[in-house]
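hey can u check if this looks right to u? its 311 residues, i copy pasted from the old doc so theres a chance i mangled smth
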Amino acid sequence: MARTSQTGKTFVSIALATYNGEAFLAAQLDSILSQTYSHFEIIIIDDGSTDNTGNVLNEYRLKDDRISIFYNEENIGYRDTFYKALLHCKGEYVFFCDQDDIWVSSKIETLLSAIGENLLVFSDSALVDQQGIPLDVKLSDTVIMLQPGEPLLNRGFIIGNCVWGHSIMFHQDLLKYTTLEKNTHAHDWWFAVVASHLNKIKYCPVVLNYYRQHEKNLTRAIPVKTGKVKGRHIAEFEIQLSRINSIAALPFNKDRSFYLQWQQLFKLRKQKFSFLLLKFLLVYRKDIFCLKRKNIFAQLVEIRKMCRKTG
């Protein structure tokens, strides 16, 4: 199928990372190729699949020349694969795309209309099971979906998130800011944080994605209980401290003093249970938990864990 010329229409890129995705990949590609807005390219990076993913990709590339496929020589993980895909994206706007979801046919058109002068827009999603059957749950039922951008709301990104990668469309100009501080955070979380602190983010409260839940999900909207895991407490501490450090380092952060205070108090946990951190978290409890659907009791339990000694 030849690319249709659409003079005057915005060109967009879809960055898709694949890895052993043969079971669901065709349904996702079909949903993208059936979009009401067709002036796009699909940049696919395969991260060393060992199943039939390569054959599926080649079959679709022969059908539609809007698809470009690249292969990693070795498995580098989904985050670095997405960043690698961005290097090939030529569109003014870029979508992150997961291999196992299904897009609503008006997704591109809707988000292009919604973004306005913002650098990033994100939407709601409906959860489906492995067979694509609706679970009657939306992402907005599992987390508190807010319009970020204000300092008090941005504080919730340290322990939470309401912006999921598969729901994001961003302007290429955002890349100038996301690369200011090198880190290993998940790409979607970092893009959302940066756009929020620039106050250039928009929430579009419409379901534009069917988010498939299955045992191979890297992230799940409905958490699976795994019991106690050795080292988890230290790992969570390191992730949260890294998030605080990265946000505090943003030159356009208008709330930097808050994060620097949190940073210093958080480090006290290495020696002992920190009562100073406990007081701080209690004072700012509503801000810190603004994106999480936790009652007061659950919040207090989590705060206590966040103050425990890690060393």
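The chain is about 35% helix and 20% strand.
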